[in-house]
């Protein structure tokens, strides 16, 4: 039986070869891309790791180091780690030396010495400092300048080459000295006890000073009691006087005060018949009786006795004209305000001395009042030098005054008949100068 053999064509073989070659090339290309990508990622991670370990490296330096092989890179990392460990150890050593009271400059110099020489220098330094620690604390407690602590390293090191090591700076405060660990526990207990004793002493001293201040304040008020009472009494009287003067001004302006001539007539007949005066006149005279004050009490030696007598003669009264009374009232107000000014000066002096009256209280008050008193005294003299305006027409006043005198000299028997005598015709008969119609004329004059 014949056998059939299948033969592959040339075209088929070529196609199969090309397909297989393309497939392998694509696989190699893809694999190469994946490998490159992984290497880039590894390189980037290595750079980031290097920058994290060595912050001082920039991106270019980290990239250069990242390109090294693993063995070289590990060797560099190990060397860098050792250097960092050494730096940390030196920092710890410096911190420990500074905690012992050694300055940063000396600690930096000391840590650079060999370990055997470090122990010798440190032992000598701490040995000498232990003897001075308590003295320095005591000096700080007493407020004295604190000496340098310990022996300078240049002396403690003997022949060691430390000529350029700076001296230890002195502690400046008690708190800084107490932080010094070279003070023994027994010394620290003594120091704390001394501090408590000092605080107790200061507290007692402060209490004693406060008690002394209170005692001095009481003594000051006691020593100046009379002077202050005198001023305060004047102030009280002055306020009452100003009130009375205000009332007198109201009465004067009411137009209901009796005329000077009428009052002169009543005075000359030798009788004080109050019911013949208006109520306003009676109140005015009653208030005026309260003003017989000694002006020299306020002015001292600035006003003469003659001027005082003149002033006493010008106390507000109904014999003066309204203008004259107004001037006298103004002067009295001026005197009252002097007393109030003294009180203000007293307050100023005490306020300037923390509320305590000084020993020279009156002297200081007078010094503050001197210029003011001079001005008021000058105004006082000017007012006294002015002529007092007449109360009413001089002829009317003289006629009424003469009538009163005639009645006072010759009318005693008639006056004994009773007060009603003044209301009848005998008044006209007793005043011959006024004629038969004297009664009516007299009434008219008395109303003026």
Question: Brief overview, please?
Answer:
The chain is an all-alpha fold and 448 residues long.
Please count the beta strands (DSSP E, at least 2 residues each). Answer: 0
Which bin fits the share of residues in helices? over 70%
Shape: elongated
Counting H and I runs of at least 4 residues, what is the number of helices?
Answer: 19
The structure class reads mainly alpha
Taking pLDDT < 50 over at least 5 consecutive residues as the criterion, the unreliable ranges are 148-168, 392-448
N→C terminal distance: 191 Å
- The succession of helices and strands, N to C, reads HHHHHHHHHHHHHHHHHHH
- Over all CA atoms, what is the radius of gyration? 59 Å
Mean pLDDT: 66
Largest sheet: none
The amount of beta strand, in percent, is under 5%
Coiled coil: 204-241
Keywords: Coiled coil
Characterization of this structure:
- It is a single chain.
- The protein is mostly helical.
- Among the domains are: 48-99; 113-183, no CATH class; 192-223; 224-255 and 298-389, no CATH class.
- Helix content is 70%, strand content 0%.
- It contains 19 helices and no strands.
- Helix 3 (70-99) packs across helix 4 (104-110) and helix 14 (322-351) runs antiparallel to helix 15 (361-385).
- The protein is elongated, with a radius of gyration of 59 Å.
- The model is unreliable at 148-168 and 392-448 (pLDDT under 50).
- Residues 204-241 form a coiled coil.
- Keywords: Coiled coil.
Topology:
Elements: H1 10-53, H2 59-66, H3 70-99, H4 104-110, H5 115-141, H6 153-156, H7 174-178, H8 185-223, H9 225-253, H10 260-268, H11 279-288, H12 296-299, H13 305-312, H14 322-351, H15 361-385, H16 394-410, H17 412-415, H18 426-430, H19 438-447
Helix pairs in contact: 1-2, 3-4, 5-8, 9-11, 9-14, 10-16, 14-15
């Amino acid at each position: 039986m014949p056998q059939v053999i299948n033969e592959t064509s040339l075209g088929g073989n070529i196609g199969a070869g090309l397909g297989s070659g393309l497939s392998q090339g694509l696989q190699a290309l893809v694999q190469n891309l994946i490998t490159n990508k992984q290497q880039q990622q590894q390189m980037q991670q290595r750079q980031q790791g290097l920058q994290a370990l060595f912050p001082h490296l920039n991106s270019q330096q980290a990239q250069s180091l990242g390109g090294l092989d693993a063995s070289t890179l590990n060797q560099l990392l190990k060397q860098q780690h050792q250097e960092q460990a050494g730096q940390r150890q030196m920092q710890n050593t410096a911190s420990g030396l500074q905690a012992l009271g050694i300055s940063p400059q000396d600690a930096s110099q000391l840590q650079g010495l060999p370990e055997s020489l470090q122990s010798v220098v440190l032992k000598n330094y701490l040995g000498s400092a232990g003897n001075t620690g308590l003295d320095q604390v005591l000096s700080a407690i007493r407020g004295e300048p604190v000496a340098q602590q310990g022996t300078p390293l240049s002396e403690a090191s003997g022949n060691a080459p430390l000529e350029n090591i700076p001296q230890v700076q002195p502690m400046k405060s008690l708190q800084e000295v107490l932080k010094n660990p070279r003070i023994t526990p027994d010394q620290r207990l003594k120091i704390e006890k001394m501090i408590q004793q000092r605080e107790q002493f200061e507290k007692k001293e402060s209490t004693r000073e406060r008690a002394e201040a209170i005692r001095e304040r009481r003594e000051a008020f006691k020593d100046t009691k009379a002077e202050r009472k005198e001023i305060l009494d004047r102030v009280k009287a002055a306020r009452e006087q100003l009130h009375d003067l205000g009332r007198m001004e109201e009465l004067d302006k009411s137009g209901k005060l009796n005329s000077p001539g009428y009052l002169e007539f009543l005075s000359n007949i030798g009788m004080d018949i109050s019911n013949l005066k208006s109520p306003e006149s009676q109140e005015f005279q009653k208030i005026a009786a309260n003003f017989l004050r000694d002006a020299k009490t306020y002015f001292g030696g600035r006003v003469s006795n003659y001027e005082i007598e003149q002033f006493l003669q010008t106390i507000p009264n109904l014999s003066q004209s309204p203008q004259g009374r107004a001037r006298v009232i103004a002067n009295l107000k001026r005197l009252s305000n002097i007393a109030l000014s003294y009180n203000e000066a007293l307050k100023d002096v005490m306020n300037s001395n923390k509320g305590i009256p000084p020993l020279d209280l009156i002297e200081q008050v007078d010094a503050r009042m001197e210029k003011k008193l001079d001005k008021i005294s000058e105004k006082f003299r000017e007012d006294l030098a002015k002529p007092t305006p007449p109360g009413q027409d001089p002829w009317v006043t003289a006629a009424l005054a003469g009538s009163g005198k005639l009645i006072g000299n010759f009318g005693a028997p008639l006056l004994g008949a009773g007060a009603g005598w003044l209301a009848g015709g005998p008044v006209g008969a007793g005043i011959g100068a006024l004629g038969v119609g004297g009664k009516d004329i007299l009434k008219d004059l008395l109303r003026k």
